[in-house]
Design goal:
The protein is α/β, with parallel strands linked by helices. It contains eleven helices and eight strands. It is globular and about 45 Å long.
Length: 262
């Protein structure tokens, strides 16, 4: 069994065909989906979908690209809704300096405030990081409760820096880029990350893996990501699937899936 640990079924590109996408994924043994918010509207929809479908869980949060627009009442809404039984993480939060560095301090402030909410509710965090690896690491290290965990969503850093995130109790999640032919760094990370700290995800509708690169991604494609990582590590697909399933259940406290597996 597989779990897509980071997917945007709340994105308008996928939302209108969600039942078909879930059905296709279930046919290849993808049994659960963590639908991740990136602003308040998408977080509300993530909760709505999680309420509608037993196999869907929600993460709620505000993406760093929204740092110039968020209001205190948005954080208050997140605070209130982290108690929802189908909400399993704070995310997608973090730092992104790729497009615009003019509001770096606002990004940091928003990031820290959401980590503190995760600490308050004893929730894991789902981290977006782009061209901001040092600041992301330093903020997580300083502000995250050391007893709580989280995941570096679609990790794009080096295998050397990966160890620093592992040392502060973070998981590493890999997505479509690990299947790209010349993706040296993701393949190195896939080989070196401790198996007990590895998750798989699609980030659909983005980052489609080979053989669908360049096309709209969907959750069933997590199978191709898992197969590529298994090949890189010299494991059977079933072992890789089982280990990442267990890791995802543990990180997001998906206790009902443990009962179903038994």
């Amino acid at each position: 069994m597989l779990i897509d640990s980071h997917v945007h079924l709340n994105d308008e590109q996928l939302f209108t065909k969600i039942e078909s996408l879930i059905e296709k994924a279930q046919k290849v043994d993808v049994v659960a989906f963590i639908v991740v918010g990136y602003d308040i509207d998408s977080s509300k929809l993530a909760i709505e979908l999680a309420t509608m479908y037993d196999s869907v869980y929600a993460a709620i949060g505000i993406h760093p690209s929204e740092a110039s627009y968020y209001r205190q009442e948005d954080l208050d809404w997140i605070d209130k809704n982290l108690s929802h039984p189908k909400v399993k993480a704070v995310g997608e939060i973090g730092l992104d300096y790729h497009w615009d560095k003019s509001f770096m301090e606002k990004q940091k402030d928003l990031f820290i405030k959401q980590i503190k909410l995760a600490n308050k509710h004893k929730m894991p965090i789902s981290i977006h990081m782009r061209d901001a690896i040092q600041d992301t690491y330093e903020i997580i290290k300083e502000y995250k409760d050391k007893d709580l965990s989280g995941v570096m969503h679609c990790y794009s850093g080096s295998k050397e820096f990966m160890q620093q995130f592992l040392d502060i109790n973070m998981y590493i999640s890999l997505a479509g880029p690990v299947t790209f032919k010349n993706a040296k760094t993701p393949k190195e990370v896939a080989k070196e990350v401790p198996i007990e700290k590895l998750l798989v995800e699609t980030d659909a509708p983005y980052l489609s893996p080979v053989p669908y690169r360049g096309k709209q991604n969907q959750p069933r494609n997590v199978e191709f990501i898992a197969k590529e990582i298994a090949k890189i590590r010299g494991l059977s697909f079933q072992e890789l699937a089982d280990r990442t399933y267990d890791n995802t259940v543990k990180l997001f406290n998906l206790t009902e899936l443990v009962k179903e597996a038994k």
